[in-house]
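User: Run a structure prediction on this.
Assistant: Running it now.
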Amino acid sequence: GPTKDDYETKIDKQKGKQMRLEQEKAGSSSSSSSSAPTCGSCKEPGHLNAKSKECLNYKATLSEMLQKDFGGIMEQFTRKFEFIRNVTFRAQIFVSSYIILNQSSDSLSAITQQNVWYSVSQLIMGQEVTNKKFLSNEIVFSFVAFRQTHPSILFTLKDHKITGYSDSLSAACVTLATTHFNHIVENFERRIVYFIQIKLKDVYKDTPKGFLYIMAREYCYEHLLGSNGNPKWPKQFDLVRIAHVNQIT
């Protein structure tokens, strides 16, 4: 029958087996390395081109760079800006409607105040107004009526949950108040002149609009300025009308 190997023979067989395993491993590694793709951009193995994130020349997308620099804060700011835009957009719609329907109201001057815009925004968000002294009952009642006709004017926190919006909303309301104030100041003269022109048209119905505008601008408006004005009677009108025009203005 077969004889058992002596001690030295066993040692030699174990060494031979270990050498074969090491040779096979080395051959496999060499084969794998030689078959790995090489990048055409950075010349490193393991990927094909610069589109791979493993490439040294990989260019990250905008969203990847924002995510790297800002993390989760980026999403929070994006949601906040969208929320503020929706609220202030609706606030402007309501205020514009209020101005049109209440042209003779004493509360129209309030649209140049930041606190009023913030209070209107609170109404838009379905909140209770925190500083009621800045918002007249007339505006509140008008909003209630407007909301009944146009329920989409609401953009409530209940339906659009968000926190930390107060500072951003306050800044937006400052911009709205300043914009309306500048609009009134920059267009004050033009509005007065056109108003006078309309009044003159009621009296001088057959006079061309162009002549009435000249009368309103060169004489009537300057006459209203008193000592600061320099009224010039238009040559298109006879002097008999001066007293009558002065009564209008």
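Residues 75-183 form one domain.
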